[in-house]
UniProtKB/TrEMBL annotation:
It comes from the Bacteria. Residues 8-343 form the Enoyl reductase (ER) domain. This is Alcohol dehydrogenase. Its cofactor is Zn(2+). SMART domains: PKS_ER (SM00829). The keyword Iron does not apply. InterPro entries: ADH-like_C, ADH-like_N, ADH_Zn_CS, ER, GroES-like_sf, NAD(P)-bd_dom_sf. Keywords: Metal-binding, Oxidoreductase, Zinc. Belongs to the zinc-containing alcohol dehydrogenase family. GO terms for molecular function: oxidoreductase activity; zinc ion binding. PROSITE patterns: ADH_ZINC. The lineage of its organism: Bacteria, Bacillati, Actinomycetota, Actinomycetes, Kitasatosporales.
Length: 356
């Protein structure tokens, strides 16, 4: 079979790799029908995730069909159409018993495309299949379902739920990339008064409006002043950081009201300054997190009911064997307008524009 292989910083290719086989009785083999690319994959290619060994097949999100299961797998069987989650869960350790699957101590957590071969291939071995794949409703199309493998549960759990969004809140989302846009969409499930999106890209701010942002702000034009104006000088109840650079983190701490929540979702590669000399008196709650995917069943039901606008985030689709082209398009998002690229579904291209 073929897979997209990391060979070292700046080196990767769609190439022949060994077919996966069952290694444990809890494994399943999935034929990949749809897969997407994550910003974390770009970090890996830059060498920012040293745990990923050269020779690893990348990817941690997929939709496909079960073709083989180990003897201990009970919840799925060959022929089932499933979502492959970005998080694997042993189901037995302390963290799994608390539904904190991202912190699994039993060999799970974020392992696909990280510590073991991932989903950007024709077939993938999924450890702990009973808790790591989800049967898919027929009503959810592949290109919608694959977004529930990572970005929607990440945005909802690490951003919206960790931020304790409540009815009537003002929520500011800094960063209108795929996860930030998913945070805007899922924040509306909890009935905030308004959601404010902050980004530097007009196209992404337009996408944020389509997903429910009542106000948008250019990150270069003092967005904290807009937040202050809309809240009578108080600040946002919840600010979600969805970029992962020091400047945006510090901006979030300036936009939040006393007693509010800053929920960090972005993956930070550099230290960010925590200005405790200003913040110690503000009664803030600051949260970080890796997604646990405990919300995936709920989000799947919402998607099947038409309550999640997943299709708005897919801007490009490709056949699976055009993985290298898809990476190029996704990696040049500022030029191409890419939000999420999906491979393995009928090809189309819908580039977001600033006027529609």
């Amino acid at each position: 079979m073929k897979g997209y292989v990391f060979r070292g910083p700046g080196q990767s290719a769609w190439e022949e790799v060994p077919d996966p086989g069952l290694r444990e009785p809890t494994d399943a083999i999935v034929r990949v029908d749809a897969v997407t690319i994550c910003g974390t994959d770009l970090h890996i290619l830059k060498g920012d995730v040293p745990e990923v060994r050269p020779g690893t097949v990348l990817g941690h999100e997929a939709v496909g069909e079960i073709v083989e299961t180990g003897g201990d797998v009970r919840s799925v069987r060959p022929g089932d159409r499933v979502l492959v989650s970005c998080i694997s869960a042993c189901g037995r350790c302390r963290y799994c018993r608390e539904s904190a699957y991202g912190q699994c101590l039993g060999g799970g957590g974020w392992i696909l495309g990280h510590l073991v071969d991932g989903t950007q291939a024709e077939y993938v071995r999924v450890p702990y299949a009973d808790l790591s794949v989800y049967p898919l409703p027929a009503a959810v199309a592949d290109e919608d379902a694959v977004l529930l493998a990572d970005i929607f549960p990440t945005a909802y759990e690490v951003g919206v739920l960790n931020g304790h969004v409540r009815p009537g809140d003002t929520v500011a989302v800094v960063g209108a990339g795929p996860v930030g846009l998913a945070a805007i969409a899922t924040a509306h499930l909890l009935a905030p008064e308004r959601v404010i999106a902050v980004d530097m890209s007009p196209a992404r701010l337009e996408a944020a409006r389509k997903l429910g942002a009542e106000a948008v702000a250019d990150a270069r034009e003092a967005p904290e002043q807009l937040v202050a104006d809309l809240t009578g000088g108080l600040g946002a109840d919840v600010v979600i950081e969805a970029v992962g650079v020091p400047e945006t983190f510090e901006l979030c701490t300036r936009m939040v009201r006393p007693g509010g929540h800053v929920a960090n979702v972005g993956v930070h590669g550099k230290p960010a300054t925590l200005h405790l000399e200003d913040l110690w008196i503000k009664n803030l709650t600051l949260t970080t997190g890796l997604v646990d995917t405990r919300s995936t069943p709920t989000l799947l039901r919402m998607a099947a009911a038409g309550r999640l606008p997943t299709s708005h985030l897919v801007t490009h689709t490709f056949p699976l064997d055009r993985m290298e082209e898809a990476y190029d398009v996704f990696g040049r998002a500022a030029e191409t307008g890419a939000l999420k690229v999906v491979l393995g579904v009928p090809q189309r291209e819908v580039v977001p524009t600033s006027a529609s």
